[in-house]
Amino acid sequence: MDSDDQRRQTKRSHDFLVAGQVATTLVLLAAAGATVRSLHALMNKPLGYDPHNVAWLTVPLRDGTYTDWQKRIRYYAQIREDVASIPGIQSAAIAYTWLPPQSLYRSSAQIRGRSNNENQTVTIQQVSAEYFSTLRIDLLQGRLWTEAETLHGEPFAVINATMAHRYWPKNDVIGQMVHLDELKARTSWTLQAPRDDGWVQIVGIVSDTPNDGLREPVLPAVYVPYSLVANDAFDVVVRTQGDPLSFVRSIREQIHRLDADQMTLEMTTAGERLYSEGLARERFVTVVFLALAVLGLSLGAIGLYSVTSYIVSRRTHEFGVRIALGADRTDVLKAVLRSILPTVLGGLASGMFITLAVGKLMEHWINGSVRDPLMLVTISLIAISVTTLASLRPATRAAGIDPMDVLRMD
User: Fold this and answer.
1) Is the CB of residue 35 less than 8 Å from the CB of residue 388?
2) pTM of the model
3) Cβ atoms within 10 Å of 163's Cβ, excluding its own
4) CA distance 391 to 22
5) How far apart are CA 4 and CA 1, in angstroms?
6) Direct distance between the N- and C-terminal alpha carbons of the chain, in angstroms, rounded to an integer
7) Domain spans of the chain?
8) What's the CA gap between 91 and 223, in Å, rounded?
9) Contact between residue 18 and residue 303 where contact means Cβ atoms under 8 Å apart
10) Any bridge partners for residue 20, and if so which?
11) What gap in Å lies between CA 298 and CA 292, rounded to an integer?
12) Residues 74, 20: Cα–Cα separation, whole Å
């Protein structure tokens, strides 16, 4: 094989390698763009509540304490009242549930007046009436239960808008009866209200909040007074002026004044919950693909710079002669850029084909679409801009060749 053949083979190898880098970069840019859009959509998704300055503290009862239903409920109510009286705490509530964007447990539900074959699955949220004002969840229709009704264990319920629209599209919700199979004492440490037979009467509708993650549709939800099933642990949910974590000591001291032996667990903010359950994975995936895309761009730029420099070094004599014969230096610059254009376009075409071909598989991992036309055009322009800039310096060097130096070399 003569030297010319070797040079052509070397150039083809370099071109193939660079085209592969450009194609890989385009795929990574598409994935990064999809994750950025997905994260932005999640961060701007309406939540139906305000997580700022909200936190909760879990209070587990000691074994063998407050074994009477009435005493346990009054103990819970007193703790809520005492915590709410702390300066700087705007609102306090009792809850036995997970804060959005998740729910604690689900139950099969039967709507009175419908056949048994129409049982549905709903989420159950056991809360005090103050829960809605603490999280700033809007009451859309009807009312909430009162403190007196909570202490008496009245079987009332408030449902979310999703459940109201799904099962009562004619807006005849208030007064409907729903049976919740899981609304019962599940262990010997939980106490059931005397009037709790699983049936609850709907008295109000509240706005939707995420209860199955940020990505999944909102599930039908039923909020009931925490007193219907007095669990052996509960959460004190607070909204504060300023950082909620600065109130941990005050809340614990207030609880210990009521019962010196009462334990409390670590306080967690609603923002932390929202991040860990909804945004953490998306941010991680976004950072990973952005880093890979930047790495791919860098490698592609370096590869193209090397190929362009190689082309210039092999054609130095040709360019010098052209300039000596009166060719414009801009023409030399264009000639160099045209020589690497097929490599870039080939890489972009291959990358676009791969992105569209494996788009479904990629979307399974990144939870976003990589086939949006506007995004594909944008990332293609980014790739072209970076590769052009990478080729510009050696191309400029070629355009700046002094023909006299070339002739002296001859």
Assistant:
1) no
2) 0.78
3) 25
4) 13
5) 8
6) 26
7) 3-44+278-409, 63-262
8) 18
9) yes
10) none
11) 10
12) 70
